[in-house]
Input
Amino acid sequence: MRMESLCAMCSVKDSSGEVQGFFGLILDVTERKQMENRLVQLERLGALAEMSEGISHNLNNILTGILGPAQLIEFQTQEKEVLQEAKIIQAAAMRAADLVKRLSVSVGSEGDTLIPVDVVQAIREAIDSAQPRWKDEGEPKGITIDIVTDLSPVSPVQATPRELHTVFLNLVFNAIDAMPDGGTLSVSSEVADDSIHLTVVDTGIGMDEETRRRVFELFFTSKADVGTGLGLSMVFTSITRCGGQIELKSTPGKGTSVVINLPAWEEGMSEKVTQAQDSIGAEVLNTI
Output
């Protein structure tokens, strides 16, 4: 990881004014920069959550007005061409409704109570759910993706089963998309201090530094004509909501590594995580 630093240098002169030497100070501000960036991301998501709530409500009303009449058409006609057009309208409306739902989840909380969740089970279920993408669709085309798991038993983490499943499903899908010619997807879990350390690594096309810095932004996507830019934004939001941290490293042509740290579950954790999230801004101010 590139170190962010501040430095200052002064010269030392003798009584005649001649410079005898220099001394300087270098201050590593990497951690402060990371915290500031995290705060900015959270503030953006908070503002977008407010905006998306109103937008989602209005869009759902509009989509109901489209989907309802399209469904009624099926009961009022037997003409094949009209029925086909009605099905196209319904399919488009359903896709739009799904996008609205994903937007709400990406920028806001699900509203469910956080409970202890078996993260290893969530990972295994996500890999199984993604099998149609990494196995059933790829192998007939000669594309082989090997899944390598090193999932050590770990303590439960604070989350919701659905939320955690969606996090890893998105990470698996992104890894698959990054390996159009096949490759290896490795997933591991381990205990590190009081945290659960999870790593998802692919041997895909990787990404440049500019893309890497923006991957968690809402609606940002590097996939031409594919994707909505909601997947990794939702991953960031969910991991933060669970009191964890996520870091992504990538090199063009050499693949991508996603590292997630989640606190191990303990009684009273929900309150502690909420307090920790509320204190992020104060921590940033104290380090400036």
